[in-house]
Every structure is written in structure tokens, then in C-alpha cells.
Amino acid sequence: MWRESRAFGCHMLWWGMALFFTTEWCSVVLVDSFQPVHWNDGFSNSLCKPYTRQSTALFAGTKKKKKRSSGSSDTKNSSGFGGAAMESCPCGSGETYASCCGKLHRDVNTYRMATPEQVVRARYSAYAKKQPEFLMASTHPLNKNFDTDLKRWKNSIKENMYDNFDMPKCCIVQESLGPDDNEATVQFIAEMILRETGEVTSFMETSTFERAKTHGAWLYKDGVIEAAPGSETLDGSASDADSSDGKSPSMEEK
């Protein structure tokens, strides 16, 4: 009986504690059991024009997008000293990575102050910048991919970081807060470019977030994938929202 009680207590301790490791430092964040665990956040406002929700017929469009020009650059002016600091943020905000999503990736306090929209952008950028720790830290304990075995979870994410893709932008369509401001939904369109061919693909997701009671950060709980207007899959066929497995680079852990 004592052993069973001890095992149960250990299990509950895992759900009440999240260990998050970054390249610079480690942080142990105590959170309420069954309460969202926030850690990362941070997008500046998107400069993309907002999409308007249209009929589902548009989601099955087969129009191809132009391939990315070989002369495009992921940086503003990277010449001379401080070039790395001028690197454009992958989320497409028009800001530098250091002043946009990078702030959330390296500073827990910035993450705690971030809006749900900013968390979406930061999670998108985390895939582009190979930041599995941020994805783990900004995931709700009740998310289906949350894993108390942190090493296994981190390795799983690292194996699915979309290494064959460039991630140029994440356009926010709509952000909505619940009546008590502790829940939120964010609808966004994420774009990905297959490096080998330059083919562009995109998807639309409606993500659900919940605010942590202890420190107030927003945690990704789940998401629903739809085909983006005029998008198509990498094999050239029209995207089918009904066939989606609910995974996305900006939101869903593997």
C-alpha cells in the first residue's frame, strides 16, 4: 500500500513540475497540477495582410504558388559586425529575430508577458531555429504529446524539426480570448518551402491556449488543421482538411 501511494505521489509530482532546458541555462518551474504550464511566448504583430475566412471550397484549391527566388535572403543587412543580430525573424513579422521571437526563446519573463499570438509565432520560429526546449516549455500538460520523459520527448521533437524546409512566415488570421481571459484561440496560416524544389505549401490551424494559473504564461493545448486558401500538398494534390492528422510545425509536438 505504501509503495502504491509513493508511486502515485511521484506521478503527481511530474504533473506538477516542468523541467525546461535551454542552451544558456536551466529552469525548474512549479505549476499547479492539471494547470497549463507556460514558459515561452513572443511574436510581434504580423505585417502580413489578414486572411478573411471564406467558403471551404477555397481550402481545396490547386493553384500553385511561385517558387522562391534563389536570390532571396533570410537576413536584412548581415555584413560587418553585428550581422547575426540583424537576422530576420522566421515568423515574418519584419523584425529581427533577436528583437522578436528570439526574446521569448531566451527569456522566460518575456514569454510570460507574451500574448497568445506571440506564442504562436514563437513556436513557429522554434521549428525554424531548432529550439525544442521552447516547444516543450510552451506545451500544456494535457496536450496529447506532452511527455513526462523529457529526454525522450526532446529527442522526438528534434527528429521532426522539418529540416528539409524553410519556414518564411506565419500570418495571424485571428486571436480570440475567452470570457475569463484564461483561454484563447489563435487562427493562423503557416507557410513552408521545400528546399529541394522551392515548392511552397501552407496550412491553416486554429490553436487553443490556456493560461497558467501560477505565472500567467499561455500554453498550447491543441489545434485543428485546415487547408489554407489556395494551398496544396507537396505531391501536387489539393489539401484535404479532413485528412489532416492535426499536426503542424508551429503548434503540434511529435
UniProtKB/TrEMBL annotation:
- What domain of life is recorded for the organism? Eukaryota
Bias (Low complexity) ranges: 70-79
Stretches the record annotates as Disordered: 60-81, 229-254
Q: Where is the YchJ-like middle NTF2-like domain?
A: 115-223
Q: Name one Pfam family in it.
A: SEC-C
Signal peptide as annotated in the record:
1-33
**Keyword annotations:** Signal
What protein does this entry describe? Answer: SEC-C motif-containing protein
